[in-house]
UniProtKB/TrEMBL annotation, chain A:
Modified residues (4-aspartylphosphate): 57
Domain ANTAR residue range list: 127-188
Keywords assigned: Coiled coil, Phosphoprotein
Keyword Phosphoprotein assigned: yes
A Gene Ontology biological process term: phosphorelay signal transduction system
Name of the protein: Two-component system response regulator
InterPro entries assigned to the protein according to its UniProt record, in alphabetical order: ANTAR, CheY-like_superfamily, Sig_transdc_resp-reg_antiterm, Sig_transdc_resp-reg_receiver, WH-like_DNA-bd_sf
SMART domains membership: ANTAR (SM01012), REC (SM00448)
GO function terms (MF aspect): RNA binding
PANTHER family the record matches: PTHR43367, TWO-COMPONENT RESPONSE REGULATOR-LIKE APRR6-RELATED (PTHR43367:SF1)
Segments forming a coiled coil: 124-151
Response regulatory domain location: 7-121
Biological source species: Mesorhizobium mediterraneum
Domain of life of the source: Bacteria
Amino acid sequence: MIRKSLTVLVIDENHIRASIIEAGLREAGHEQVTVVHDVAGIARRIAEIEPDVIVIDLENPNRDMLENMFQLSRVVKRPIAMFVDRSDQASIEAAVEAGVSAYVVDGLRQERVKPILDMAISRFNAFSRMARELEEARSELEDRKVIDRAKGILMRSRGLSEDAAYALLRKTAMNQNRKISEIAQSLVTAAGLLDPGES
Amino acid sequence: MAAEYQINAGFIPLFDSAVLIAAREIGFAAREGVDLTLSRETSWANIRDRIAIGHFDLAHMLGPMPIACNLGLTPLASDTIVPFSLGLGGNCVTVSNTLWAGMAAHGALPDLDPARAGKALGALIRERANAGRDPLRFAVVHPHSGHNYELRYWLAACGIDPSREIEIVIVPPPFMADALAAGRIDGYCVGEPWNSASVVAGTGHIATVKATIWKTSPEKVVGVRKAWAEKHPEALSALLRALHHAARWCQDPVNRGELAALMAQPSVLGLSPALQMPILTGHLALGGGAERTVEDFFLPFDKAANFPWKSHALWFYTQMVRWRHVAHTPENLAIARDCYRPDLYRSALKPLGVALPGANSKVEGALASATPVGSAGASLVLGPDGFFDGQIFDPDEIDAYIARQKLARAEA
């Protein structure tokens, strides 16, 4: 028996994360996927799309509004409830920790929805990991820039070589039990205060 | 003192989370041996979910929310108890400038009088209905909230059927002012500072306030996962003592500046300290240059503000029944009654020798003025606690109260 493919609505203000989820759903064979970034006019969209499953990020401040709307039958034709399988506490925890939740229409069998939720959880986690790595790379670049500027200040004001300037920064950081980039930032800030022309 | 107890709690960026914030930031929790970790959340649904899976042991909650959880009205509900109230009052009903002009044309004055404002609003609603215009749209923060129930109570007492004559939608507190300015809603009921935010922006007018609809009425509470409370009674008692000291600190006018600065931090509300002053002083700018000072506008401590009265829980229950959120049965009534736990409040605070109410319930609306009451230990002042329409809620006559409201609705 061929089952009708599920219609999925993804509500996520983060465009990149939403497209990652959408791609995952399509790879899993779900063709009827709609992505919404802004909840303005969401009631009308839900009435048009009639989704079987709604995937939403937990940081969305409109969850209370959506849950209330799901319970009002005049807005949605079929009641929508939160995906909660009490026997699967681990799955609920994983979803909340990943920052995602799913709502399903009344009567839909849990085993048809679980793969969608599992996929959303793993993609949300992958996205967080990627965002974290990007942030780390970005701050590493920033650190390197500020260390270069601090080295330049030391080289000019104390006549040090580049290696000696770096060694001085490192030694000060070790003595004060702080990061080199923090020492460098303090130096750049202080130099800026002492010499308006410097910064 | 090294922390004996680790407690995780969630809060929503609203001023009435102040007691929790002060307990951590001013050091009251640490003094009781509690390492209190606070996480800011973006929705009540998140608070509920994180309580359910054990991320939070307790949280800043809407007064009716733990009752709704225990009645099974929400998904992922876990048994939640209320051993402490975070304050009385603090909400306003704010309307757009256009709606205020319409109400003023029907006799509303900038005096916050709920009866006068409601009468004017009713006249305007009927005028609009006769002209075939869409119903006015009001927003509240959650279906199971003091806001929803006090807005409905006010309208119904003024002869307006809130289920038919207006539309009520849900909007998160920080978005209220924007939704009003953009014309997506005509009015809203929310806690501060989100009313003053519209007044300062020149896009809204405060029509009436919770503290006049029902004086010294319940608002936010500390909701605690019941299983956690039963397993960690000492930790809970220590926290309740810390919250008691924090609440007294929040009430003291000497600390207003420091508290406003604390709440203004980007990690808490992220709004200017000046916007925190109306709730602290009760001195409100209403819009259009009008000002008013409201007695007992928000009480974080005074008038037994932290005592979890069973009569407060039961009043919320009667409104859940009234607006068909739940059926009135002996079982449901018992669930609502058992949700608020004055016994836990009393046993935690007893060693401090402070004023404690002797009863668990009171007749709401019976006190016309501030009244010293008999209590264990030091003296205690309660009230006035009247409803603006003069009705009395006697928790021992709950069937009659529910029947009376049902009848009033049928006649409307």
